[in-house]
Amino acid sequence: MKPFPLTDENLIKFVSYNMQFAPFVTGLASRVAMSQIMVDGWDISAEIASYVFDAARDEYHDRDAPAAVRTTHRSMAQAVLRVLGVESDKGLGVGWWSRIHNGYSHPVVGFALGFHLRAEEVAGGEFSAVMHRIMEERPDLQAALEAHKLPNGVQSAWSWFKVHASDGGAEEDHASSARKAVELLYRRESHGDRDFVEYGISQFDRMNREFWDSLK
Q1: What is the mean pLDDT of each run of 10 residues along the chain (216 residues)?
Q2: What's the longest Cα–Cα distance across the chain?
Q3: Could you give the residue ranges of the DSSP H alpha helices within the chain?
Q4: How far, in Å, CA of 128 to CA of 72, rounded?
Q5: Reduced to 3 states, what is the DSSP secondary structure of residue 98?
Q6: Whole-structure pTM over 0.70, yes or no?
Q7: From the centroid of its chain, how far is CA 156?
Q8: Domains and their CATH numbers in the chain
């Protein structure tokens, strides 16, 4: 992650980029569950998929939201965009959609799990850095985000940053679960899984550097 001007335009790009991941996490969990990863004659695919699904579960109903009102992370991100003056999220982030799709949908499961692992490992630190910069450099924006309440009546647009930040947010748990998924995959031998996981990690890092470099 590199320093960037904390403009509305760059924040919109940050939100739009991060909104793209959720459907691919869900798809990866399903694909892993159907992949028949065999260890000692037994299929452990469902166990591996369960650790990927940990992240998907939060994406489609935030852990801190009231149970009675469905609160997705996408709807929380949309609240941030509204505060930033965006009238529609149609087409936002589309330039990164195909790159993220290619990572999560790679035909080799080990590559996709490595891509996912790295995405979860870096997200918390990135969200924390952006959140704390907003607090220090743009307290007016923080106040506006806190004032914009979500339909559940409890959380605000600011909650989107808080639930993802590394200091107590969901991403630490998601990264831990992703590591457990990869550790289970490594129990399978002679499939080159470690090499593919490392390759997936490196390709995520490459894409992510390009995203941060795009913020001017």
Answers
A1: 91 96 95 94 96 90 81 93 94 91 96 98 96 97 97 92 83 93 91 94 98 94
A2: 59
A3: 8-18, 22-33, 45-60, 73-83, 94-104, 109-137, 139-147, 159-164, 170-185, 193-213
A4: 20
A5: helix
A6: yes
A7: 19
A8: 8-213 (1.20.910)
